[in-house]
Structure prediction request, 261 residues.
Amino acid sequence: MTTVERIIANDAGGLEEIVRLVDELAAAHDLPAGPVTDMQVALDEVLTNIVQYAHTDGAAHDIRIRLTVSPETLEAEVEDDGRPFDPLTLPPPDLRGALADRAVGGLGIHFVKRLMTEVRYTFVDNRNRLVLTKRVADQGEAHGSGSS
Amino acid sequence: MAVDLREEAVGDVAVLEVKGRIDSSSAPVVGERLTALLAGSGRRLVVDLAQLEYISSAGFRILLLAAKRAEEAGSRFALCGVAGKVRQLFDLGGFLDLFPISASREEGIAAVR
Prediction:
């Protein structure tokens, strides 16, 4: 099992750094593409929400990300010091409707919930903590057999 | 950059091939190109997503915007190459029936003519 921790700024550059980090970890652990992609989409959604909505003071804030890779799961713990916000309480987006009145509000969190095996939210020491877990073994047995 | 854009003209149809990833970092770049390609009325555009690895909600936002612009301007817009993981994301977002999606680039070109 490998755990990597990064502190990023609440801006777009931080986001790109995390996507690259997941790429590197996935390559180092020979993870199948499906669950890795799911985690990258989920992290893009979660981090974008934090960058856009968590803080209202316009100042720079740290976001702490801890990624853990094991043969069974890929896990990301994301912590920010923004206003308390449990994304799991958001109502599901309206996925019907014609082009003209289709909005994408709430779509990101919908993706997170549907793509991840488990999502947990806690508010601890004045910090939002979201734990995203993706089971790697979900994607079939074709990968990783015989690796040491 | 997470995304690579390639443009090709097939007669009066513009084909934009999107390779890589459309996430919140790369979506603005793709959005600008789509806006440029759809500037004016009566444009014909096919966006080929066969080489796309994934698309997040930021990417769907710009695709929706492009489709709406095309509709308002009387331009014609189609997607093709929606497969694998990308197709799954379209499905999760309820977009498979919303966007005009062609099975291949050739069919997309025929659809916007």
Remarks:
- The beta strands of chain A are 2-9, 62-69, 73-80, 118-124, 127-135.
- Confidence is low (pLDDT under 50) at residues 139-148 of chain A.
- Chain A is about 30% helix and 25% strand.
